[in-house]
Fold:
Amino acid sequence: MGTTMREPAVAGTFYPGTASALQRELDQLVEVEEDRHELLACIAPHAGYVYSGAVAGKLYGHLDIPQRVIVLGPNHTGAGAQVSVAPHERWRTPFGEQPLDTALARMLVERFPAAVFDADAHWREHSLEVQLPFLLTRNPDVELSALCLGHLPLDQCLNLGRILAQLITDLGEPVGIVASSDMSHYLADDEARTLDHLAIDAALTLDPAKLYETVHREGITMCGVVPATVAIEAANRLGATAAHLVAYATSGDVSGDRSAVVGYAGMCIHR
Structure:
């Protein structure tokens, strides 16, 4: 662990780069529901807010956020280790400097042999960063641990999920898990929706192997299938009993271009 600060990579592009503009956007996107679930685990989209923000906002308005949250995201850049734990003490956001949960991060690296502290994977990665403003607007005191994951085989996904669940159990306090993932990429809208709902239906069974295998068998370009598989395995071991789809959309719903869309799903996994 170092004393490094991670600077934002996509503030001002994926989401507003000033505190006032970002808060205005979040106020529009997040409507807090009366009937909410404490975050056990969820699958949340990570595109620019203009495209996936409505789905993410609906999901986060459906959730209460505990103080400690682990965010799992796919590695879009290819940099760094296969299981890269953010080594930073703080991440800068338009709202200011956000402390990271360094104690939990250390425990994870100690328990999972493939996990290493690695800043390279996090330097330009957007999939984790875009979740933080949503988490902060629902709980300003949230403490984040961030893992950037390469394309792990199924057995490693399940093992990481088991270790995360045991770590959380040993802590004896609530720790939420966010799996960051978009769905199909650059397909015609009707094809994307068909494939995405195969993956969504598999995820909602709470069978992590079924999700992983469905995505690979059907060639679904769900970039965060590894984080989602890990999160489902961990949630199961933490007592998950059900999951449901909170919101779904494609980029075509915003742009009007249905010829090549990206899909976005918000899913809640709960006890």
In short: The longest helix spans residues 154-171. The CA atoms of residues 44 and 145 lie 16 Å apart. The first strand starts at residue 5 and ends at 6. The radius of gyration is 17 Å.
